[in-house]
Amino acid sequence: MYYLNQAFCYEPASSEKVEVHLLLVYLCSMNARFREVQYFFTSQYFTDGLRITLGVLLPAFVFAQFGLMTKGVLLSLGAFGVSITDSPGPVQHRRNGILLCSIFAFLVAFLTGYLRSNDFLLGLEIFVLSFFFSMFSVYGSRAGSIGTAVLLVLVLTMNQDFGTGNVVVTALLVLAGGLWYLLLSLVFSRIMPYRAAQQALGECIHETAKFLRLKAAFYHPSNQLDDDYRQVVAQQIAVSEKQDAVREMLFKSRQMVRDFTNIGRRLVLTFVDIVDLYEQVMTIHYDYAALRRRFGKTGVLEEVAKLIEEMADELDELGLAIQSNSRYRNTPPFSEKLEQLKASIDRFEEEHPEESSLPLKKILVNLRNLSQRLQEIQHNYLSKSAATDEKLDGKLEYSRFVSSQNFQLKILRHNLDLRSAIFKHALRMAVACTVGFAITRLVDYGHHSYWIILTIIIILKPAFSLTRQRNYQRLTGTFFGGILGVLILFLVDNMTIQFILMVLFLLGTYTFLRINYMLMVVCVTPFVLVLFNFLGTSGLGLAQERLIDTLLGCAVAFAANYLIFPNWESDHLKQLVLEVAKANALYLHHLTERLSGKPIETQDYKLSRKRVYVSAANLSAAFQRMLSEPKTRQQHSKEVYEYVVLNHILSSYIATVVSTILERPPQVYPTEYLKPAKRALQALQECLKKLAPDHSLPELTEPKAESKVLTVAEPEDELMQEQLEFIQKLSQDICKTTELIFSTEKRATAEVNN
């Protein structure tokens, strides 16, 4: 980055400008690609892939050296099953999940060993256990992965005669494999206790840097604003998911929050700063169409975009250093470039005295604040004395920022109802797996027909859109992976090279498991083909059988999701829209209270801010999934998209105003400030009363007579007044769009009933 920055400062002759520009673009693109590669190979996904590959492959490999291949495979099967539950999170959660999965895997392997000789009893077991373990999702994603893992163990043991002659031995070997993997996982965590948290935080910073680059795109006059908004809204989902992952990792781990280790406390402090920086990025929001009309031909907006992109690059470098646990070179601040931007704004004022440059000055202030925050984050992470007890103790009550999972039995009982989406999914899974089992017994065309049920378990998801997406990815990945596997078997005769390729494909399988399902399938298919080649089965016949099994499994899963209690995203949009509206109303309530002179509790404000971002991300994700559903189910996609964009703009403007007033001591603002804020809040409240009569907000605090009233004197106060008036207009537009969504939904429901 240092040499690139120096290159940007180089002033070429006129004949060299085009060549230098192309060279800089090429160098920047190469640097960005190299950084992406570094992020990948230092990510938690690649690290998890290495750990799981070692845990699954090692038992079979070692036991094979002593002629005990069958027992080694059973150990690997147990390790494979529990590895599915080993998702990122606090060590105690991972330990408990793996241990519980190992016990369930033992019980299921034991039961299946006795029932697999009777097709009727085995089919009944598949139906009951598919329903039972699918219901585990009521206790969260980790519990849901335990259910999936146990079902995979069931399927992989039901048709296999491992030759042990003893069901108990088989089940114990599966249990031992799970415990072996548990030991391996705990050893990794003990050796590198902060590695997972560093990786999660690094990825969060990486996604935040991407969001910052997308915000820079708004200042390029040639870009389409609709495309920019679409990308920003989609990136909000990624940032929200990464922030939740880091909260889970840090705030639920005693070692990070309560222990006195410097690195753990620095990670917590850095994350808190990153979330604040994300809000600072949200405040860089204006009427971009008006900005382009007024300043598009001056070149100032391009300077703003370039500076924001450089800040994003610097943030990315910090994220990479944290994720890879490598040295970070603290670069000089952006003060010189900020002065260059100020000079450009001053030059514009001199050349266009009739035009107000106030929006540009406000952008400059925001960029200075962003630069200052970047410097603080760099200092806090690099300085060993930055994360002192005083800085963290009492700063936030971290437990309020993470959700706690309740494991009471009454939650399961409460969901045993057709109104529960998880209950309907469990029934759907039970029926689909039973149908898949029936196909394996009625159609005799190969020795690995259990692949049909495996396919169903893996791709059948609660939502139709997710199942449809997994269908496409599974079929495409199996086709290309099958071609790759067959080519390897026909072109590579050396068994050592085949073994190395098999290990690499297994590593790719577990690396891409959580980030790219299609690539995971592309890797797992040649792995299976090469593995069976070592076991004595190979050729085109095996690849053809796997493709047919995949087709049948995908067909059963797709039909089940379409015909058996289909779960459409449009059915959940009402609740998601309401959650966003409630979050916006509370966020605006805090702003109005501060304008009335009441201090804002930092913790309450940050909680309301988090609620806005999370609810908006949930709605955006549901909207994206709805677009992949049949057209007949996309009842009001245009209105929902408009609502998503308006909500993004509203939350950005609120964050912009809040960032301005938090810099000042509490004081009462004049009527021209309070009136639009109160009207905006009133509009949202009236809208909520129509849709959710039970919802209410606290009463607004009336300014005290003796309170100090702000005297309007600063130019930025005039801009803030314009922003508050725009917030009022946005709130009214959001209410109209919300009512239109629900009126459209009512009409659609009436048409269906008629």
What does this structure look like?
- This protein has 754 residues and is mainly α.
- Among the domains are: 220-233 and 256-398, no CATH class; 432-565, no CATH class; 569-753, Methane Monooxygenase Hydroxylase, Chain G, domain 1 (Up-down Bundle), CATH 1.20.58.
- The chain has helices at residues 2-9, 17-41, 44-64, 69-83, 91-115, 119-134, 141-158, 167-191, 195-217, 225-251, 254-257, 262-282, 288-295, 300-324, 335-351, 358-382, 389-392, 409-414, 421-442, 451-459, 464-491, 495-511, 517-534, 540-563, 573-595, 602-626, 637-661, 671-691, 715-753.
- Helix 3 (44-64) runs antiparallel to helix 4 (69-83).
- The longest helix is centred in the last third of the chain and has 39 residues, at 715-753.
- The model is unreliable at 1-18 and 747-754 (pLDDT under 50).
Average pLDDT for all residues:
81
Regions with pLDDT < 50 over 5+ consecutive residues?
1-18, 747-754
Order of helices and strands: HHHHHHHHHHHHHHHHHHHHHHHHHHHHH
The percent of residues in helical segments reads over 70%
Task: Work out the strand percent.
Answer: under 5%
Largest sheet: none
Structural class, judged by helices and strands?
mainly alpha
Radius of gyration from the alpha-carbon trace, in angstroms: 29 Å
Basic shape = globular
CATH class of the domain at 569-753: Mainly Alpha
Q: What would CATH call the architecture of the domain at 569-753?
A: Up-down Bundle
Total beta strands = 0
The CATH topology name of the domain at 569-753 reads Methane Monooxygenase Hydroxylase, Chain G, domain 1
The count of helical stretches stands at 29
Distance between the termini: 65 Å
